[in-house]
């Protein structure tokens, strides 16, 4: 496997340290640190949780239901913020290169999920020619159930507005809420078998960790069969 995802994200931060004003950098660092400090890990989605029916909107049109996703085996959901998010434009293509082929070989669907409306979210798929599926979580419904949402703090809101429309206009949701980077592996039993949430969006699950989690699910399924 190539360079780790988190080393690429660290390079993004290093570039910002070099090029951003101290004030802009402080807003970004403070928001991420606050999310880490205030994270309520006991409320986040976790292994063992039962998943009720849900539906995601595919960016090309149509929908993906829980039943469809786990009909033939486990499925992997990767929550990200929005199509224009710089860190997401590193992470999602990275997963497409380093995670998608391994999951595809195992017959396991990989879906990158954001609350952004489909007609705007499609941009990240076309920009990187992604082979993984990209889908919209309308109104953050599933992310809310998984308890992985956060809201911009006041300094981040002002910084966002100083550059143009607020994030609610960018995503089409009309709110300041975004999901924290989250990976969820759901089994055919409609239960969570692996979940990892990162309150800091510049830290994300490595591809091999997810592959290993999927292999554990597939191994246990084979033993049951």
UniProtKB/TrEMBL annotation:
Protein name, as recorded: AhpC/TSA family protein
Pfam entry (one): AhpC-TSA
Coiled-coil regions, chain positions: none
Superkingdom of origin organism: Bacteria
Signal peptide: none
Any GO molecular function: oxidoreductase activity
Limits of the Thioredoxin domain: 45-219
